[in-house]
Write a structure and sequence with these properties.
By secondary structure, this protein is an all-alpha fold. It has one domain. Helix 2 packs across helix 3. The termini are far apart.
Amino acid sequence: MSRVINLLDLTRHHPSLETGISTADIIDLVQNLGTPMVTVLCCLWFIRYIYDQNAKEREKFLQRDEANNKRAFELSQNCNEAMSKLAHAVEMDTKAIE
């Protein structure tokens, strides 16, 4: 019965491989809780698993997005500096011609 409690504990929804649930435990769960309840618990576990995986993926995308934003900002700064130097050079050439 302690494995039933561990399975129902949503904070530890990923059981370790060493303490995997046996066939007898699954049969016991189905007999005690019923097929619909076991199915619902499996669906809840799967939803939580997918949610956790998506959270990790979103974090990776945010980090990559921040790095890309930083690079784009640096490129725009470099472009602005180059345009300022070009404008200054054109201005100096214009004064030299006059």
